[in-house]
Amino acid sequence: MSVAPSSRPKVLMVSPMPDWDLAPMREAYDLVDLPANGPDGLDTVADITALVTSGGRGADAALIAALPALRLIAVYGVGYDKVDLEAAARHNVAVTNTPDVLTADVADMALALALALARRVVDGDAFARSGAWAKESMPLTASVSGCKVGIVGLGRIGEAIARRFAGFDTEIGYWNRSPKPPSSWRAFPTPAALAAWADILVVAVAGGGDTVGLVDASTIAALGRDGLLVNISRGTTIDEAALIAALESGAIAGAGLDVFLNEPAIDPRFFRLGNVVLSPHQGSATMATRQAMGALVRANLAAHFAGEALPTAVVRRRK
Ligand code: NAP
Protein backbone atom coordinates (compact mmCIF):
# COMPACT_ATOMS: atom_id res chain seq x y z
CA MET A 1 0.00 0.00 0.00
CA SER A 2 1.48 3.33 -0.97
CA VAL A 3 1.33 6.18 1.50
CA ALA A 4 0.32 9.55 0.09
CA PRO A 5 3.01 12.15 0.51
CA SER A 6 2.35 14.62 3.28
CA SER A 7 0.59 17.77 2.16
CA ARG A 8 2.05 19.65 5.10
CA PRO A 9 4.81 22.11 4.25
CA LYS A 10 8.37 20.96 4.81
CA VAL A 11 10.75 23.10 6.84
CA LEU A 12 14.47 22.37 6.77
CA MET A 13 16.06 22.68 10.21
CA VAL A 14 19.68 23.73 9.67
CA SER A 15 20.24 24.13 13.41
CA PRO A 16 18.26 22.88 16.41
CA MET A 17 15.57 24.80 18.30
CA PRO A 18 14.17 24.16 21.79
CA ASP A 19 11.36 21.64 22.27
CA TRP A 20 8.89 24.40 23.15
CA ASP A 21 9.28 25.66 19.57
CA LEU A 22 9.58 22.28 17.88
CA ALA A 23 6.34 20.96 19.38
CA PRO A 24 4.06 23.64 17.84
CA MET A 25 6.10 23.62 14.63
CA ARG A 26 5.60 19.85 14.26
CA GLU A 27 1.84 20.40 14.42
CA ALA A 28 1.98 22.59 11.32
CA TYR A 29 4.99 21.40 9.34
CA ASP A 30 7.12 18.40 8.53
CA LEU A 31 10.49 19.29 10.05
CA VAL A 32 13.49 17.85 8.27
CA ASP A 33 16.93 18.06 9.89
CA LEU A 34 19.76 19.01 7.56
CA PRO A 35 21.82 15.80 7.22
CA ALA A 36 25.46 15.81 8.28
CA ASN A 37 26.50 15.58 4.62
CA GLY A 38 24.40 18.62 3.71
CA PRO A 39 21.52 18.87 1.24
CA ASP A 40 22.91 15.93 -0.82
CA GLY A 41 21.67 13.71 2.00
CA LEU A 42 18.03 14.83 1.64
CA ASP A 43 15.52 12.53 -0.11
CA THR A 44 14.27 15.46 -2.15
CA VAL A 45 14.82 19.19 -2.13
CA ALA A 46 11.96 20.04 -4.51
CA ASP A 47 9.44 20.74 -1.76
CA ILE A 48 11.58 22.68 0.72
CA THR A 49 10.49 26.32 0.59
CA ALA A 50 11.65 27.42 4.06
CA LEU A 51 14.58 26.79 6.34
CA VAL A 52 15.36 27.74 9.93
CA THR A 53 18.92 28.44 10.98
CA SER A 54 20.83 30.09 13.82
CA GLY A 55 22.90 33.26 13.69
CA GLY A 56 26.03 31.17 14.15
CA ARG A 57 25.20 28.69 11.40
CA GLY A 58 23.50 30.92 8.83
CA ALA A 59 23.04 29.71 5.26
CA ASP A 60 25.85 29.85 2.72
CA ALA A 61 25.62 30.21 -1.05
CA ALA A 62 26.03 26.45 -1.64
CA LEU A 63 23.08 25.58 0.63
CA ILE A 64 20.87 28.26 -0.93
CA ALA A 65 21.75 27.09 -4.45
CA ALA A 66 21.04 23.45 -3.52
CA LEU A 67 17.42 24.28 -2.58
CA PRO A 68 15.71 25.44 -5.81
CA ALA A 69 12.26 25.90 -4.19
CA LEU A 70 13.60 27.90 -1.22
CA ARG A 71 11.66 31.12 -0.53
CA LEU A 72 12.47 31.87 3.15
CA ILE A 73 15.50 31.75 5.44
CA ALA A 74 14.31 32.33 9.03
CA VAL A 75 17.23 33.17 11.34
CA TYR A 76 16.86 32.35 15.04
CA GLY A 77 18.89 35.39 16.13
CA VAL A 78 19.34 39.03 15.14
CA GLY A 79 22.77 38.66 13.49
CA TYR A 80 22.51 37.43 9.91
CA ASP A 81 26.18 37.81 9.00
CA LYS A 82 26.45 34.06 8.25
CA VAL A 83 23.63 34.22 5.69
CA ASP A 84 24.91 34.91 2.18
CA LEU A 85 22.59 37.84 1.45
CA GLU A 86 23.82 38.18 -2.14
CA ALA A 87 23.00 34.53 -2.85
CA ALA A 88 19.61 34.96 -1.16
CA ALA A 89 18.85 38.00 -3.33
CA ARG A 90 20.08 36.19 -6.46
CA HIS A 91 17.70 33.29 -5.78
CA ASN A 92 14.91 35.65 -4.64
CA VAL A 93 14.83 34.20 -1.11
CA ALA A 94 13.52 36.30 1.80
CA VAL A 95 15.51 36.48 5.05
CA THR A 96 14.05 37.16 8.49
CA ASN A 97 15.70 37.59 11.91
CA THR A 98 14.61 38.15 15.53
CA PRO A 99 15.36 41.81 16.39
CA ASP A 100 14.29 43.76 19.49
CA VAL A 101 13.18 40.82 21.64
CA LEU A 102 16.79 40.05 22.59
CA THR A 103 18.10 43.61 22.91
CA ALA A 104 17.64 43.95 26.68
CA ASP A 105 19.30 40.65 27.59
CA VAL A 106 22.29 41.19 25.32
CA ALA A 107 22.74 44.70 26.71
CA ASP A 108 22.51 43.30 30.24
CA MET A 109 25.29 40.85 29.36
CA ALA A 110 27.55 43.71 28.27
CA LEU A 111 27.03 45.36 31.67
CA ALA A 112 27.56 42.04 33.46
CA LEU A 113 30.87 41.52 31.68
CA ALA A 114 32.05 45.09 32.33
CA LEU A 115 31.16 44.90 36.02
CA ALA A 116 32.60 41.40 36.47
CA LEU A 117 35.81 42.48 34.77
CA ALA A 118 36.31 45.82 36.52
CA ARG A 119 35.29 44.57 39.97
CA ARG A 120 36.93 41.14 39.47
CA VAL A 121 33.78 39.31 40.50
CA VAL A 122 34.94 35.95 39.13
CA ASP A 123 38.34 36.28 40.84
CA GLY A 124 36.58 37.26 44.06
CA ASP A 125 34.42 34.16 43.94
CA ALA A 126 37.51 31.96 43.54
CA PHE A 127 39.30 33.91 46.29
CA ALA A 128 36.45 33.38 48.76
CA ARG A 129 36.00 29.69 47.90
CA SER A 130 39.72 28.88 48.15
CA GLY A 131 40.00 30.17 51.71
CA ALA A 132 42.58 32.78 50.64
CA TRP A 133 40.37 35.46 52.19
CA ALA A 134 41.25 34.20 55.69
CA LYS A 135 44.93 34.96 55.02
CA GLU A 136 44.97 38.13 52.92
CA SER A 137 42.84 40.81 51.27
CA MET A 138 41.96 40.74 47.62
CA PRO A 139 43.67 43.42 45.51
CA LEU A 140 41.69 46.60 44.94
CA THR A 141 39.69 46.82 41.74
CA ALA A 142 38.57 49.49 39.20
CA SER A 143 35.37 51.60 39.31
CA VAL A 144 32.71 51.43 36.64
CA SER A 145 30.57 54.25 38.03
CA GLY A 146 31.76 57.61 36.78
CA CYS A 147 34.03 56.26 34.03
CA LYS A 148 33.97 56.95 30.28
CA VAL A 149 32.23 54.28 28.21
CA GLY A 150 32.75 54.13 24.45
CA ILE A 151 30.34 52.11 22.32
CA VAL A 152 31.31 50.86 18.86
CA GLY A 153 28.03 50.48 16.95
CA LEU A 154 25.06 52.40 18.31
CA GLY A 155 22.33 50.11 16.95
CA ARG A 156 19.48 48.70 19.01
CA ILE A 157 21.80 46.81 21.38
CA GLY A 158 24.46 49.56 21.45
CA GLU A 159 21.83 52.12 22.45
CA ALA A 160 20.43 49.83 25.15
CA ILE A 161 23.97 49.40 26.51
CA ALA A 162 24.47 53.18 26.54
CA ARG A 163 21.18 53.71 28.42
CA ARG A 164 22.18 51.15 31.03
CA PHE A 165 25.67 52.62 31.54
CA ALA A 166 24.14 56.10 31.83
CA GLY A 167 22.48 54.78 35.00
CA PHE A 168 25.99 54.33 36.42
CA ASP A 169 26.73 58.07 36.06
CA THR A 170 29.18 57.35 33.26
CA GLU A 171 30.02 59.58 30.30
CA ILE A 172 28.92 57.97 27.04
CA GLY A 173 30.76 58.24 23.72
CA TYR A 174 30.20 56.25 20.56
CA TRP A 175 31.31 55.54 17.02
CA ASN A 176 28.61 54.65 14.51
CA ARG A 177 28.78 54.12 10.73
CA SER A 178 25.89 56.48 10.04
CA PRO A 179 25.19 59.75 11.89
CA LYS A 180 22.89 59.69 14.90
CA PRO A 181 20.64 62.54 16.08
CA PRO A 182 22.38 64.97 18.46
CA SER A 183 22.31 63.88 22.11
CA SER A 184 24.36 64.14 25.27
CA TRP A 185 26.31 61.12 23.99
CA ARG A 186 29.51 62.21 22.25
CA ALA A 187 30.17 61.02 18.69
CA PHE A 188 33.74 60.11 17.67
CA PRO A 189 35.05 59.97 14.09
CA THR A 190 36.79 56.58 14.37
CA PRO A 191 36.81 53.57 16.71
CA ALA A 192 40.45 54.42 17.55
CA ALA A 193 39.56 57.99 18.58
CA LEU A 194 36.76 56.60 20.73
CA ALA A 195 39.10 54.06 22.33
CA ALA A 196 41.67 56.76 23.13
CA TRP A 197 38.96 58.64 25.08
CA ALA A 198 37.21 55.67 26.74
CA ASP A 199 37.97 53.75 29.91
CA ILE A 200 35.71 50.90 28.78
CA LEU A 201 35.18 50.15 25.08
CA VAL A 202 32.08 48.05 24.30
CA VAL A 203 31.70 46.53 20.83
CA ALA A 204 28.07 46.14 19.69
CA VAL A 205 28.41 46.54 15.92
CA ALA A 206 26.98 44.00 13.45
CA GLY A 207 29.27 41.24 12.18
CA GLY A 208 29.88 40.50 8.50
CA GLY A 209 32.53 41.21 5.90
CA ASP A 210 32.52 45.00 6.30
CA THR A 211 33.28 44.95 10.04
CA VAL A 212 35.98 42.27 10.16
CA GLY A 213 38.80 43.62 12.36
CA LEU A 214 36.99 46.97 12.80
CA VAL A 215 38.53 47.09 16.28
CA ASP A 216 42.10 46.68 15.06
CA ALA A 217 45.49 46.64 16.78
CA SER A 218 45.74 50.45 16.83
CA THR A 219 42.26 50.80 18.37
CA ILE A 220 43.12 48.23 21.04
CA ALA A 221 46.42 50.01 21.75
CA ALA A 222 44.61 53.38 21.98
CA LEU A 223 42.53 52.02 24.86
CA GLY A 224 45.67 51.99 27.00
CA ARG A 225 46.99 50.08 30.00
CA ASP A 226 43.97 50.79 32.22
CA GLY A 227 41.43 50.23 29.47
CA LEU A 228 38.83 47.46 29.43
CA LEU A 229 37.30 45.95 26.31
CA VAL A 230 33.89 44.23 26.16
CA ASN A 231 32.65 42.38 23.07
CA ILE A 232 29.07 41.14 22.68
CA SER A 233 28.92 41.55 18.88
CA ARG A 234 30.79 38.89 16.90
CA GLY A 235 34.31 37.48 17.26
CA THR A 236 35.12 38.82 13.81
CA THR A 237 34.72 42.50 14.72
CA ILE A 238 37.92 42.55 16.82
CA ASP A 239 41.40 41.59 15.60
CA GLU A 240 41.56 38.64 18.01
CA ALA A 241 45.30 38.02 17.57
CA ALA A 242 46.01 41.66 18.43
CA LEU A 243 43.63 41.45 21.39
CA ILE A 244 45.34 38.37 22.83
CA ALA A 245 48.76 40.01 22.37
CA ALA A 246 47.53 43.16 24.17
CA LEU A 247 46.09 41.09 27.02
CA GLU A 248 49.29 39.03 27.34
CA SER A 249 51.55 42.09 27.40
CA GLY A 250 49.30 44.21 29.64
CA ALA A 251 48.84 46.80 26.88
CA ILE A 252 45.19 46.86 28.03
CA ALA A 253 43.91 45.92 31.48
CA GLY A 254 41.38 43.27 30.49
CA ALA A 255 38.56 42.02 28.30
CA GLY A 256 35.06 40.66 28.88
CA LEU A 257 34.10 38.52 25.91
CA ASP A 258 30.84 36.83 24.94
CA VAL A 259 31.90 36.18 21.33
CA PHE A 260 35.02 34.74 19.73
CA LEU A 261 36.47 33.49 16.50
CA ASN A 262 36.01 29.72 16.07
CA GLU A 263 33.26 29.22 18.65
CA PRO A 264 33.09 26.96 20.58
CA ALA A 265 36.71 25.81 20.00
CA ILE A 266 38.11 29.18 21.02
CA ASP A 267 41.79 30.09 21.09
CA PRO A 268 43.23 28.23 24.13
CA ARG A 269 45.48 31.19 24.94
CA PHE A 270 42.38 32.83 26.44
CA PHE A 271 42.32 30.15 29.16
CA ARG A 272 45.77 31.16 30.42
CA LEU A 273 44.91 34.83 30.78
CA GLY A 274 44.05 36.18 34.25
CA ASN A 275 42.64 39.45 32.92
CA VAL A 276 39.64 38.12 30.96
CA VAL A 277 36.08 37.12 31.74
CA LEU A 278 34.90 34.56 29.19
CA SER A 279 31.23 33.91 28.42
CA PRO A 280 30.15 31.15 26.01
CA HIS A 281 28.00 33.34 23.73
CA GLN A 282 25.24 33.76 26.30
CA GLY A 283 24.01 37.23 25.30
CA SER A 284 20.46 36.22 24.40
CA ALA A 285 20.45 32.97 26.37
CA THR A 286 17.65 33.54 28.86
CA MET A 287 14.45 31.52 28.97
CA ALA A 288 12.22 34.53 28.29
CA THR A 289 14.26 35.84 25.38
CA ARG A 290 14.75 32.45 23.72
CA GLN A 291 10.98 31.89 23.93
CA ALA A 292 10.33 35.30 22.36
CA MET A 293 12.91 34.61 19.63
CA GLY A 294 11.29 31.25 18.86
CA ALA A 295 7.86 32.86 18.70
CA LEU A 296 9.20 35.34 16.15
CA VAL A 297 10.70 32.58 14.00
CA ARG A 298 7.34 30.78 14.09
CA ALA A 299 5.47 34.00 13.25
CA ASN A 300 7.70 34.49 10.20
CA LEU A 301 7.16 30.88 9.07
CA ALA A 302 3.39 31.20 9.54
CA ALA A 303 3.30 34.44 7.54
CA HIS A 304 5.41 32.90 4.79
CA PHE A 305 3.14 29.87 4.40
CA ALA A 306 0.00 32.07 4.60
CA GLY A 307 1.36 34.38 1.90
CA GLU A 308 1.31 37.34 4.31
CA ALA A 309 3.89 40.07 4.97
CA LEU A 310 6.86 38.77 6.98
CA PRO A 311 6.89 40.37 10.48
CA THR A 312 10.66 40.90 10.70
CA ALA A 313 12.15 40.74 7.22
CA VAL A 314 15.76 41.67 6.60
CA VAL A 315 15.33 40.94 2.89
CA ARG A 316 11.95 40.62 1.16
CA ARG A 317 11.27 38.70 -2.04
CA ARG A 318 10.84 40.56 -5.29
CA LYS A 319 7.43 40.05 -6.84
P1 NAP B 1 21.13 46.71 14.72
O1 NAP B 1 20.12 47.48 15.49
O2 NAP B 1 20.85 46.37 13.30
O3 NAP B 1 22.52 47.55 14.80
C1 NAP B 1 23.60 47.19 14.01
C2 NAP B 1 24.74 48.13 14.28
O4 NAP B 1 25.84 47.74 13.45
C3 NAP B 1 24.43 49.59 13.91
O5 NAP B 1 25.21 50.42 14.73
C4 NAP B 1 24.88 49.64 12.47
O6 NAP B 1 25.21 50.93 12.03
C5 NAP B 1 26.12 48.79 12.54
N1 NAP B 1 26.50 48.26 11.25
C6 NAP B 1 25.77 47.41 10.48
N2 NAP B 1 26.44 47.13 9.35
C7 NAP B 1 27.59 47.84 9.41
C8 NAP B 1 28.69 47.97 8.53
N3 NAP B 1 28.72 47.33 7.35
N4 NAP B 1 29.72 48.77 8.90
C9 NAP B 1 29.69 49.43 10.07
N5 NAP B 1 28.66 49.34 10.96
C10 NAP B 1 27.63 48.55 10.62
O7 NAP B 1 21.48 45.33 15.40
P2 NAP B 1 21.42 44.98 16.97
O8 NAP B 1 20.12 44.35 17.29
O9 NAP B 1 21.88 46.15 17.77
O10 NAP B 1 22.55 43.82 17.02
C11 NAP B 1 23.90 44.16 16.82
C12 NAP B 1 24.75 42.92 16.74
O11 NAP B 1 24.85 42.31 18.02
C13 NAP B 1 24.18 41.79 15.86
O12 NAP B 1 24.43 42.02 14.49
C14 NAP B 1 24.90 40.58 16.38
O13 NAP B 1 26.12 40.38 15.69
C15 NAP B 1 25.22 40.94 17.83
N6 NAP B 1 24.45 40.10 18.77
C16 NAP B 1 25.11 39.34 19.68
C17 NAP B 1 24.40 38.56 20.58
C18 NAP B 1 25.10 37.72 21.61
O14 NAP B 1 24.52 36.75 22.07
N7 NAP B 1 26.30 38.09 22.03
C19 NAP B 1 23.00 38.52 20.52
C20 NAP B 1 22.36 39.32 19.59
C21 NAP B 1 23.09 40.12 18.71
P3 NAP B 1 24.13 51.86 11.27
O15 NAP B 1 23.37 52.58 12.34
O16 NAP B 1 24.97 52.75 10.43
O17 NAP B 1 23.26 50.93 10.46
TrEMBL record:
Matching entries from InterPro entries are given as: D-isomer_2-hydroxyacid_DH, D-isomer_2_OHA_DH_cat_dom, D-isomer_DH_CS1, D-isomer_DH_NAD-bd, NAD(P)-bd_dom_sf
Instruction: Tell me which domain of life the UniProt entry assigns to the organism this sequence originates from.
Output: Bacteria
Q: Which family does it belong to?
A: Belongs to the D-isomer specific 2-hydroxyacid dehydrogenase family.
What are the D-isomer specific 2-hydroxyacid dehydrogenase catalytic domain coordinates in residue numbering? 41-314
Keywords, alphabetical: NAD, NADP, Oxidoreductase
Q: What Pfam families does UniProt report for this protein, alphabetically? A: 2-Hacid_dh (PF00389), 2-Hacid_dh_C (PF02826)
What name does the UniProt record give this protein?
Answer: Hydroxyacid dehydrogenase
Any idea where the D-isomer specific 2-hydroxyacid dehydrogenase NAD-binding domain is? Answer: 111-283
A GO CC term attached to the entry: cytosol
User: Mind telling me which SUPFAM superfamilies this protein's record contains?
Assistant: Formate/glycerate dehydrogenase catalytic domain-like, NAD(P)-binding Rossmann-fold domains
